[in-house]
Every structure is written in C-alpha cells, then in structure tokens.
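User: Hey, my collaborator sent me this sequence without any context and asked if I could get a structure. I don't really work with proteins. Can you help?
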Amino acid sequence: MEKLNIGIILGSTREGRLSPQVGNWVKQLADQRGDANYTILDIADYKLPLLGEKDADASGAADWSKDVAAQDGFVFIVQEYNHSIAASLKNALDYLRVEWNNKAAGIVSYGSVGGARAAEHLRGILGELLIADVRVHPALSLFTDFENGSVLKASAVQETSVNQMLDQVIPWATALKTIR
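Assistant: No problem. I've predicted the 3D structure and written it out in structure-token form, which is a compact way to encode the shape of the chain:
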C-alpha cells in the first residue's frame, strides 16, 4: 500500500516565530515512525496576501493549492495569538476549499496556556473545511517546554503525545482517502 502524504503546516509567518522549531521537532518524531511521507509546508514560503486584497500579488496561491491537494492529512502547528490562531493561518486556510476536504488532521499547539484556545478556534474552522481533526492534542507551554520562552525543549511526555496524535491521524487519513 502506498504511504500517505501528511503535511506539517507551520501556522505563523511572524518574525521570531517558534513554529519552525516545533514543526521540525514534529517531523523528526514522525519520520522515525516510517508510516507516512511527512512534509513541512511553511505558509511563509507562499505568496498569500490577504484574500481578496485588490491588486495583490497572489502568485504563490497556485503552488499552495497544489501542495495542499497532494496531502492526505495534516498536522497543524498552531501558536496562540490573542486567544486565537494567527491571521496568516486563517488566510491560508481561506485560500482553498476542496483541497482540504475529506482529510484528517492533528493539532500541535503552543502558547502561555499551551495554545489551547487557538486549537479550539482552529477546530471550528477545520470542521467547516471538512477536515476531521483527531482528539489527541499535544499542547506545548511557553513556560515549561521552551527554554527562556524561545528554544524548544519538549519533554518525553510531549513526544509520547505527538505519537499518540499520529496514531489517530494515520488511520483517519487512510479511511478518508477512500471517499475522495
């Protein structure tokens, strides 16, 4: 059976963001499993101005569409900004519709309260896009999982949580692939 493609989406474009560290950590753990092809999709690498912005250069939208469509599931790396997700992630989600449909996703969040509020906001958006999100949700604290609030030092418990999340994402993505 062909391996699934799982995109690890970095949900922030802000300068000084921690999502690349978290995404690389998740990818490293995921690659050890050997159960899927894991790829980091950094929305900062695509030209995605505000959707509908007049005269904006949206030249990256076609590549974003192609890359998202090629995935069977996702892991969203979500940081909490003002009790919600980053505007850049919401914008990137809104750029597409059918490319998201009937796929599975896990969420790895971080923030002062583990990014829990952002993850809950994201769940509502994912439901509207027909993305089935799984229950296990690794939530990293800026106070205990990052040294000086800036260098990821996740505990073994968090590593276990990531693997448990992927244990749910993989079978859901496999099942949903049958209806696409």
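In plain terms: The beta strands are 4-10, 36-42, 73-79, 103-111, 131-133, 139-141, 146-147, 151-152. You can pass these tokens on to your collaborator as they are.
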